[in-house]
Amino acid sequence: MLASNAALTAGAESVLILDLDAHCGGGTASLIAKEPRIRHVDVSVCSYDSYPASERARLAVVTSATDYLQEIRRMLGEVDRYGPFGLCLYNAGMDPSEDCSTDGLAGITREVLAERERLVFEWCATRHLPIAFVLAGGYIGPQLNIPGLVALHRLTLSAASRAGISP
Prior knowledge:
CATH class: Alpha Beta
Organism: Fimbriiglobus ruber
Oligomer: single chain
Strand content: 15-25%
InterPro entries: His_deacetylse_dom, His_deacetylse_dom_sf, Ureohydrolase_dom_sf
Number of domains: 1
Protein name: Deacetylase
CATH superfamily: Histone deacetylase domain
CATH architecture: 3-Layer(aba) Sandwich
CATH topology: Arginase, Chain A
Radius of gyration: 15 Å
Domain Histone deacetylase: 7-139
């Protein structure tokens, strides 16, 4: 929200917050409720911090990995009707990973997350939409060690680089 406000103050006409962390962004949704220039797209795999979706804060809680990428595509297509945006702020959470012991979803593999990152950065690139992102989520546990988490975050950096975006 702070970055969104800074972007609006700096002259962006509107901001898209794209939240693909495992958990819902209820705090973000409540903070943007009175700011019509900010849209929030939230695709989560865990209902923690869920909120009632609204016109500006779209929420989908995915319970099947086979629906994950399809739902992200659908939500991005839906938000297109509100653009163009001046900036996309992307929460590139890795905690949807099946290897994440805290609310990861079985079937969301490294390959699925790599495709998600490609999809997001290409979506922004084709719209000439500037994007700022944070490497987020991912919890160390029995199936995910520090090098494994770093490898997941590198998916974001690689996809950004392929799309011509500098980290």
